[in-house]
Amino acid sequence: MSKQNRRDFLKKATVTTAAVAAATTVGAPAVHAKKTYTWRMVTTWPPHFPVLGEGADKMAEWIEKMSGGRLKIQVYGGGELVPPLQTFDAVSQGMVEMGHGASYYWAGKSPATQFFAAVPFGMNAQQMNAWLYSGGGLELWEDLYAPFNLKPMPAGNTGVQMGGWFNREINSVKDFKGLKMRIPGLGGKLLAKAGGTAVLSAGGEIYTNLERGVIDATEWVGPYHDYLMGFYKVAKYYYYPGWHEPGTVLETFVNKKAWDSLPKDLQEIITTAAARSNIWMLSEFEAKNNTYLQKLINEHGVKLKKFPDEVVTTMRGYAREVLEEVGNKDKQSKKIYEHYLKFQKNVRAWAKISEIAYAKITS
């Protein structure tokens, strides 16, 4: 082989080797990108339930789109795969990868879970988001769920709720005595202080329980949902304000082993989809609640009632007692309770000269 031919051969070989190396480098992520994951999500809501179940459906849809189909999630409503209130255990034990619900349903696992859903006379939706995203609340929530092999994140909010539907008038705190009411979380403990009985049941069971007299009253969410649920057909009085749930956070949670199996970009996609769902749910409720409140009043003759000041004042006192009791159950509950109160005090000081002051001059 001549010197010229040898130089040409070596030149081509070098180019070919470089091309192969480049192809290998480019090909590695391409092969990785083709790996797909198929997950299941169980929820506490009936299948495709307006706003709440829809939020879970949309989150799964957004995750699939953002991941280019690499992560597909099949959503199951309460009872389709597991009973609604067994969602937490199903994800914790690895039966499925994801869950969707509200953390106060899991008070039996730890009393502190309730601080991440709703606190009577506590923070509203905007303030809860501030605490979770920017005030250290989410890190406390993650620590609380870690022993259960779960990673939680906010995925919705109802905003300030209504006080509930009653088949008797509430003229004083005495009218709560003997009352059986569907009410979860810390609000149920306040009812017990007033002599009532709190009943925990899934959303799909409430109408029937109210119709059959299993319960005398129920809280749920607000006018839009309550209209769709048809509560006006089986209850006489519609009370406000919802002191028991001023800004209820909805959650999604992921089995930690499943979470750790994902590449970082898919983890970020789930987090982003949950945050989008958080905003979408609150927006849906805010956009539609007044429209449906007027329908309830004008089309169905619903009697809108305001809780008497004496009732609100007494229940606020009960709230302080209950929070002290729950917040001192154990070391972790105390840490979360104190952190919540400190942030609430700080954010309310600002709210008095911002949101509250503005509301007064525009009402």
TrEMBL record:
Gene Ontology biological process terms from the UniProt entry: transmembrane transport
GO CC field: cell envelope; tripartite ATP-independent periplasmic transporter complex
KW Lipoprotein (keyword) present: no
Compartments, record wording: Cell envelope
Keyword RNA-binding included in the entry's annotation: no
Binding annotation for substrate: Q161, R182, E219, E245
PANTHER family named in the record: EXTRACYTOPLASMIC SOLUTE RECEPTOR PROTEIN, PTHR33376
Protein's UniProt name: ABC transporter substrate-binding protein
Organism: Geothermobacter hydrogeniphilus
